[in-house]
Amino acid sequence: MECCRKNEKDSYVLGLILLGFLLFASSQVYAQSPVRVDSFYMPSLGKTKEISVILPSYYNPNRRYPILYLLHGYGGGHADWPTRTNLARYIKDLPLIVALPDAEDSWYVNSAVELRDRFEDYMINDVPHYVQRLYSIDTSRQAIAGLSMGGYGAIMLALKHPSRFRFAGSLSGAITFPRAMNDTLRPAERALFPSLQRAFGERQNGSVNAHDVFYLYRQTPKDSLPYLYLATGIQDGFRGFLPAHRAFTDLLRTYGAAYEYHETQGAHNWQYWDQEIQPLIYRMRAILDF
Fold first, then answer.
1. Are residues 99 and 11 in the same domain?
2. Confidence (pTM)
3. β pairing state of 36-42 and 47-54
């Protein structure tokens, strides 16, 4: 009888130990909902904005994760990628944090017209500071990518701040701008003109040149540039995008920059971006080594 009581007591103690371990573990590694939406005050803009963040399925704050800053296009916002693509499913098993900021129709630059619209400062200072304060980030493995306006923004920011990012990706990037900002003959291009003028001011001023990817890549030694990944659809409705990609990647090749470029079937739409974000992430994983 004493033996049975002893076994019961031992089992009870073992159960308490196991429960304690599980509670401790759950406080360190825990399952996450696919997307969380935070809001924070942005000193560069003087206002509060929302940001979507996707954490790994089992996030461990004691581990440092690579991060992808994924940018939206013109007319979009921080919720576009999570709600209009299967992004969360594509990355659910990856040890990766994805931050999706809301930059309005800013073209990701400090406006040449509205001094309060300092969206480049927001992207380079405010967003990383906020994300790194809340989450465990490996700052040696940072990437940036986006679509359309965000594709332009990702390449432009990576070229202006090459030590910040190891990888920059663009899908259907609007890299024709700002150099072609006055060439807005078709309705789609005309709709962009007010935002372009607000971002860059008048044609051929200093702000235009300082944000032109055709100029920026030459300002950094080729070996110090991040890896550049560009893809665009052959049926893209913006007439200048395809030839601009061909011209830009020809320059990168001549310069000796590390890059890859893909022309694939598709238009300027979410079906294309949902398809092409997958190989972009695959290549990013190889470059960031995770």
1. no
2. 0.88
3. antiparallel
| 8 and 133 share one domain | no
Q: Provide the mean pLDDT of the chain.
A: 89
- Flag residues of the chain having pLDDT under 70: 1-33, 183-188, 203-204
How many C-beta atoms surround the C-beta of residue 139 within 10 A?
A: 11
176 in the same domain as 187: yes
Counting Cβ atoms within 10 Å, is residue 90 exposed (0-12), middle (13-18) or buried (19+)?
middle
Q: How far apart are CA 73 and CA 270, in angstroms?
A: 11
Residue owning tokens 């371990």: 21
CA dist., res. 165 & res. 99, Å (int):
14
Both structure tokens of 163:
């030590």
pLDDT at 203: 63
**pLDDT tens digit sequence for 22-33:** 333 333 443 455
Spatial contact of 40 and 112, defined as CB atoms under 8 Å apart: no
Per-residue pLDDT tens digits for 91-112: 999 999 999 999 999 999 999 9
18 in the same domain as 88: no
Query: Which neighbouring-strand residues pair with 68?
Result: 98, 143
Range of the domain at 24: 1-31
- Total domains present in the chain: 2
CATH number for the domain including 84? 3.40.50.1820
